[in-house]
Hints:
The structure is a single chain. A hairpin with a 2-residue loop joins strand 2 and strand 3. This protein is α+β, with helices and mostly antiparallel strands. The radius of gyration is 33 Å and the shape is globular. It has helices at residues 41-61, 72-75, 155-163, 206-217, and strands spanning 2-5, 9-11, 14-16, 19-22, 29-30, 33-34, 97-101, 107-121, 125-131, 136-141, 168-175, 224-228, 232-236. The strands form four sheets. Strands 7, 8, 9, 10, 11, 12 and 13 form a seven-stranded mixed sheet that branches. The chain has a two-stranded antiparallel sheet with strand order 1-4. A two-stranded antiparallel ribbon has the order 2-3.
Amino acid sequence: MIMSMGSGVTDGGRTRPAVCLRAVAPPKWSDGWPRSGHLPHLVIVAKVVIELKRVIATLAVALVGVATLTSPSAAAGIAPYEPTHTGPRVVSSLAALASATVTEGQVKEVAPEGVITYPSVTSCLTVTVRLRGGGLVGAHASLFQVPGELRSDEILDALKQLVGERPVAAIEVRGAVGAWHPSYFVKALESYGEGEQAPIPEGPDFNGIAQAVSRGLGLPRGLVTVEDVPDGDQIIR
């Protein structure tokens, strides 16, 4: 209801303003919703829930290469990247055992006829070097760095150092091939600063990964084989 002031009326020589009360109809709704666009609280809550689900799905996709990750070097401004691990995650050939468990970001060696176990390989790649003398040297490359362990762009160099000058019979790469871009062995996802776009794999690139491993180890491409395998433990004999 709206109150309005009229021109006034005369009362004993005095003029009093005329007051007019006018009823105004409430705003019309169409199909139960206000025309003004103000949605009921339940609709707003539903929209928020849908948006949260979308964000969660996007974060899940990021596990296989969504970009714009902030690296330690980006956080430090122009400071160069310094490995966060406090000690080498490499087991020397002098300590080669009959069996070894190689977790993400680690490099280890087993003696001839030994066994290497790579546990819970999901988004990772494993690189096993078969020595002509019978031993195995294995690296567990992680798509994202495990705190205190080697990054994906450090793992091949560590593997190369452990193999040394010993003759190599074969190099076997196994794991989630479709989740890896060959460049991850050269520049880890963590090294991309805010606003930078990391390359995203468009599908399994067997040859590209084989070439990246060959170059990283300084060994012939013909020695390298690449195999996409299901998630789970890998046991190499």
